[in-house]
Design goal:
With 102 residues, the chain is mainly alpha-helical. The longest helix has 16 residues. The radius of gyration is 14 Å and the shape is globular. The relative contact order is 0.14.
């Protein structure tokens, strides 16, 4: 029987190797938050961040301490709108996407 890795490792590998999947994951995380499922949105975005820019680089780009970002997207995190939109704006730019709410 083949040894399998964790689901999070699978997702991170797929994000690194499949741009369309990465874009879909980012969209799904944002959509979940916009529809009111903040916890799922934070979880998806945390996995996306880990697989793409990482919290260190995201912290440098947004002027926010990496530990604060990790807490913000953690299970008990409660991001302020200013910080959340700053992060989402950077993630879109980094991914080469421009998402709109309709």
């Amino acid at each position: 029987m083949a040894k399998t890795g964790s689901f999070k490792e699978l997702v991170q590998t797929r994000v690194k190797n499949d741009k369309k999947f990465a874009e879909a994951l980012l969209r799904e995380g944002i959509d979940a938050m916009l529809s009111g499922d903040v916890e799922t949105g934070k979880t998806i975005l945390r996995d996306y961040i880990k697989a793409t820019v990482g919290f260190e680089k995201l912290g440098e780009a947004t002027g926010t301490q990496p530990k604060s970002l990790i807490r913000m997207f953690g299970p008990r995190g409660n991001p302020q709108a200013k910080n959340l939109f700053n992060v989402l704006g950077y993630l879109q730019k980094h991914a080469g996407l421009e998402l709109h709410v309709a």
